Amino acid sequence: MSKKELDPKRVTATGNGVDQGITGQECTFYVIGVANEADKVHPSIDGPSQPSMSKGVDENGNVVVKYTPTLPGEYTVKVEINGKHIKGSPFKVEIIGDSDPKLKRIKKIQVAGRGVIIGKSYMNNDFWIDGREAELAAGLSVNIKNPERASSQLKINDMGDGTFKCVYKPTAAGQYVINVKVEGIHVPGSPFYVRIT
């Protein structure tokens, strides 16, 4: 008896590898909804450099894809199953040069707290963003990517001293992805993959 065919429209990808990266640093993304069938997932990349892509499987059965771009610019990452694009593919990925002056400031921003590691559904989970060293006053964006059929209310409290307390309340268990960006660039550690129980 053959396995049920994977439906590319029900498969998603998440991570900085399908969003944004920095030259010389590894970019990673997760292909979710493939149930340990890595051999059916075909990622490819096109851009100023042609980095090779490695593919593996994590403990949740998601496919993990990694690559390291060597030149800045816009890249196109495609993820296909049986010759058909998954949801959101092709992805436009911005790779920033490691000498970009904005990076120096953004590297000083810190994110900490249990809420970017693990959390509980139907309860408030929190984390802090410390932008004091970077003199963070504007350009902060925080968003949470929820599992299918789930949501999370997010509140960002500006403490007035360059720090921000973020509180969110997820409605279901699963893996949530928290993106923290300043001026459109991920801060160190972002995106955060949070297991909600």
From TrEMBL:
One of its GO terms (molecular function) is actin filament binding. It holds the Pfam family Filamin. The keyword Repeat applies. One of its GO terms (biological process) is actin cytoskeleton organization. Belongs to the filamin family. Keywords: Repeat. SUPFAM superfamilies: E set domains (SSF81296). It comes from the Eukaryota. The keyword Repeat applies. This is Cheerio / Filamin-A/C-like protein. InterPro entries: Filamin (IPR044801), Filamin/ABP280_repeat-like (IPR017868), Filamin/ABP280_rpt (IPR001298), Ig-like_fold (IPR013783), Ig_E-set (IPR014756). Filamin repeats lie at residues 3-95, 101-196. Gene3D superfamilies: Immunoglobulins (2.60.40.10).
